[in-house]
Amino acid sequence: MATKIFLTGATGYIGGDALFSIAQAHPEYQITCLVRNSDKGSEVACQYSKVNLVYGDLDSVEVLKEEARKADVVLHCASSDHSVAATALLEGLISHPRDQPGYFIHTSGTGVLTFADTERGVYGEASSKLFNDWDGIGEITALPDFALHREIDKIVLRAGIENASRAKTAIVCPPAIYGIGRGPSNKTSVQIPRLARSILIKKQGIQIGPGKNYWGNVHVHDLSDVYCKLVEAAASGGGKATWGAEGYYFTENGEHVWGHVSKLVASAAHSQGLIPSTEVVTIPDDEANQLVEYAVILWGTNSRAKAIRARNLLQWAPASETLEDTIAEAVAIEAKKLGLIQGHAAKASS
């Protein structure tokens, strides 16, 4: 019998690319996607005629419970911070019989690791603290309750431990994601595009504090490979993946210093004739947060982690282009959105 997948976030950046990866690798899977309305449904249906659609949102508790109850695997990519949705999906999975457990793959994010900087209120400074998901797994699953995403991480971890015979859980924790997505709708990420957009609006390079802070990064295609491998493991009865208490997977493929990224973005914008110089200046924290909500967290904190578990257990081998290789394209995309340069269609009609 074909594996039944229920996926949230199909029209989002992460979920859309994960859907592409899984559907391409396994056309035999029966995939159902949650969509908010007929417009969103049409976007998915145009690219995936065999995908089933159910209508609702993250507050549609009964819909989520029922779809999770029917699914073999739930891939939750729509939100890292929606307790109602996570709880409803897990309740649906927990209704599975013990001899046919369901699998829940949840999307968190390494913003959970920024707690030390946010607690101190110090941004743009480097930290040497490096987390890992292998021999450091106990530290990861016991982070402070006030850390970003921690509330939902705890809900998932608790369900995977207390109901291990019915619901097998895994948390995928990506860092800064880059690259063009292959999903039906949103194809761009948050951190790099919003930095590029802000630099274009201000017409000068900007950074938070001295810009010495580190974040990990991963190409969206490589991230989707982790989801695909976990779904494959679930479809085979768990495979070599770990679930429950040790079901926590970082997905980095290197790291960057945010001040350096600001310089790369400014240089790309200048070379494209969009800003007058390559200079990068430090802007006050409150000004940054006015440009982009939570900018000091997005560009001013440290979030450093090594993705050992996926490499060791899933044979994950990220191979996409580097973050640095995608900067010029990210700048051009944001410039088009702002109307600063014409897209191909506009040029052809002019």
Offer a few descriptive terms.
globular, 14 strands
Question: Brief description of this entry?
Answer:
The protein has 350 residues and is of the alpha/beta class.
Protein architecture, described:
The chain is α/β, with parallel strands linked by helices and 350 residues long. 43% of the residues lie in helices and 17% in strands. Strands 3-2-1-4-5-7-11 form a seven-stranded parallel sheet, with helices on both faces. The model has no long low-confidence stretch (mean pLDDT 96). The radius of gyration is 20 Å and the shape is globular. It contains 15 helices and 14 strands.
Describe the SSE topology:
Layout lengths: L3 E5 L4 H13 L4 E6 L2 H10 L4 E4 L5 H10 L2 E4 L6 H12 L7 E6 L7 H6 L10 E2 L4 H4 L9 H13 L4 E7 L2 E3 L12 H12 L2 E4 L5 E6 H16 L12 E3 L4 E3 H14 L8 E4 L1 H7 L3 H6 L4 E2 L2 H6 L8 H15 L6 H6 L1
Helix pairs in contact: 1-9, 3-4, 4-7, 8-10, 8-14, 10-14
Residue share in helix? 40-55%
Calculate Rg over CA atoms.
Answer: 20 Å
Structural class: alpha/beta
- Tell me the distance between the termini: 54 Å
Q: What would you call the shape?
A: globular
Helix count, DSSP H or I runs of 4 or more residues? 15
Number of strands: 14
